[in-house]
Write a structure and sequence with these properties.
The structure is a homodimer. The first copy, chain A, is α+β, with helices and mostly antiparallel strands. Helix content of chain A is about 50%, strand content about 25%. Chain A has a domain of about 110 residues: Jelly Rolls (Sandwich). The first copy, chain A, is built from nine helices and six strands; from the N terminus they run H-H-E-E-E-E-E-H-E-H-H-H-H-H-H. In chain A, helix 4 packs across helix 5 and helix 8 packs across helix 9. Chains A and B meet through strand 4 and helix 5 of A and strand 4 and helix 5 of B. Chain A binds a DNA duplex through helix 9.
DNA sequence: GTAATTATTTATCTTATGATAAAGGATTGG
DNA sequence: CCAATCCTTTATCATAAGATAAATAATTAC
């Protein structure tokens, strides 16, 4: 739990009471590799913080498994397109390395926003920052060849290639596994 | 200005004082087609609301003009990767049809957050919603052929194809203008 | 209204990536 | 520790999209 509060401090300081209020609506979850932390079709009512492990958000498009994003230690995961709309998510969260996560109940969290503007501010900043990352990602996708995208990933997030099966990386890069393998062979 | 407050109401109600406070830090701007509302290299300190007209955010990648997104009436524009980080933006906002926009000073707006939690909440919701749109857009890009992306645009936002030069649409779709023309010829 | 500029289309050729199949490696469960 | 499964690579062929050039169409400025 302390790791979570330390993560929060990068965005915005919280009072002790606010930390306590968040602790009260949170719980620790341990989950093994290859399991879904949240299934497809479920409305997102939990914001997770990864203390240990690796996860991905994925979905199926025309029957093909597509990875939307990877998540590592010290990051927040949520299927925002469900969390912020209240609609069921077509995406799932899968654990790729045995994980310990903090689960924060989002409905209760949103209620805390009324009593603790500092908590609302904190999460505003967290999601603003996630929004910026997402906008930057689009820039990385538009108008780059598969090979350029692979090299960028190799350079910016070698962790992904070390800790995640390549078949998941391929769809993240928007290519087939076979193409990824071919690109990797080019050296 | 009333159009702006009406837009706000879709997200979260504001008290009269809060509306007044926002009005005080805002101004109306009229700007002609093909002009940059904000140039490349400028740190984003303004959030715009389009009352009338069309705009796009664009940047240069290896000397090529790339459109990140289009904006129409009744929407908020900001280069969030600069607004939320304080870093200069490599992107510009260009007007594509003579426009009237409301310019909200973001530094003053962020100060209002302290006195008016309702304003912080409103903009939190506005940007959460923009974040969701951006996440959904990635889904539309990953693993779709250029033709599928064109058809999706034709179906979901025919406005873009009616009101925007195709050369800007091509880079938005992540293809060359020549490819877009070829795809359009396929019927 | 006309010339000049800019936008769009069409054509040709090349190349990157998809689809499919199959072989080789690695991991996992009993 | 072995068998079964799953992951990754390699090979072949087909196709979508890039690059370039040039023709046509539309818009803009004078």
């Amino acid at each position: 739990m302390e790791a979570l509060f330390q993560y929060f401090r990068k965005f915005s300081p919280l009072s002790k009471e606010a930390e306590k209020a968040i602790a009260e609506i949170s719980s620790m979850v341990t989950i093994k590799k290859n399991n879904d932390l949240q299934p497809i079709g479920h409305t997102c009512k939990t914001i997770y913080f990864i203390k240990k492990g690796v996860a991905r958000i994925y979905y199926f498009k025309d029957g093909i498994d597509i990875t939307e994003r990877f998540f590592f230690e010290n990051s927040i995961i949520a299927r925002v397109e469900s969390l912020f709309t209240g609609k069921p998510s077509r995406k799932a969260i899968q654990i790729l390395e045995d994980a310990e996560v903090v689960a924060i109940n989002s409905n209760q969290l949103f209620k805390l926003y009324d009593d603790y503007p500092e908590i609302e501010r904190l999460f505003r900043k967290i999601f603003e920052s996630a929004y910026v990352e997402t906008v930057n990602r689009i820039e990385g996708i538009q108008f780059h060849s598969a090979e350029e995208r692979y090299n960028a990933l190799l350079h910016e997030a070698p962790d992904v290639l070390m800790r995640v099966p390549l078949k998941y990386v391929a769809s993240y890069l928007g290519i087939t596994q076979v193409s990824l393998s071919r690109i990797r062979g080019h050296r």
